[in-house]
Amino acid sequence: MLSINNLETSYGLIKALKGVSLDAAEGEVTCILGPNGAGKTTLMFTLSGIIKPDAGSIDFFGTSLTGLAAPKVLREGLALVPENRLVFPLMSVRENLLAGAYTRNRSDKDEVEADIEKMFARFPVLKERQEQNAGTLSGGEQQMLALARALMSRPKMLLLDEPSVGLAPVIVNEVFAIIKQLKEDGLSIVLVEQNVVKALEVADHFYLLDQGRVTFAGTPGEMENDDVIKRAYLGGG
After folding, report:
1. Measuring CA to CA, which residue among 6, 104, 122 is closest to residue 58?
2. Per-domain residue ranges for the chain?
3. Which listed CATH number (3.90.1150.10, 3.40.50.300, 3.30.450.40, 3.40.50.670) goes with 2-87+155-234?
4. Which of 40, 51, 191, 224 is surrounded by the fewest CB atoms within 10 Å?
5. How far apart (Å, rounded) are the C-alpha atoms in residues 58 and 66?
6. What is the full per-residue pLDDT of the chain (237 aa) written as tens digits?
7. Eight-state DSSP code of residue 51
């Protein structure tokens, strides 16, 4: 369980998160929706320890993550797949996967290798490209590598920031099929996504974020039945 209470985060004098509170349950997909500039990526950066909050709390399976640096957050089991993938372009696919396991005990070398083989089984294209530099992969292949790299840390919960951005529709479908499979495997996921229709297909709960505040929360069915939100986010009449 991830529990966020009255979280505030700033960039200098600009307050990006203004008292955000939300919960993400174990084994579920929790979606964070909202327009550009709403604070979604800032929230993901704050949860993952890239940015420190000004106020509020982050509790994860009974452990406080508030203000922890990114490596410590990762060791606690919260792993980020950032927007635009951000793979290491001059490193091979295999080296990127090894980088995803950098917080694990060095004595787990055999287990790390076994997990790489599991990633190759889940993402066959990565096995074909394992010695290829990550920067030469297609956008969809880089997204799969970013997912696999995060999974190499054996996270309790995955933070996915805009996994469909910049991808062709057929690749978007593949990415969301992977998200659905990860959910069926029992992995807890917090998903930030602009493609509302695809996000609601996998979501158990969602929150709308606007100008740094949570403005609505509910289930996909509740969103579809709310006329104002449907017009704003789904193009309904």
Report:
1. 6
2. 2-87+155-234
3. 3.40.50.300
4. 224
5. 5
6. 899 999 999 998 899 999 999 999 999 999 999 888 889 999 999 999 999 999 999 999 999 999 999 999 999 999 999 988 899 999 999 999 999 998 887 768 889 999 999 999 999 999 999 999 999 999 999 999 999 999 999 999 999 999 998 888 998 999 999 999 999 999 999 999 888 889 989 999 999 998 999 988 988 887 766 665 665 555 544
7. S
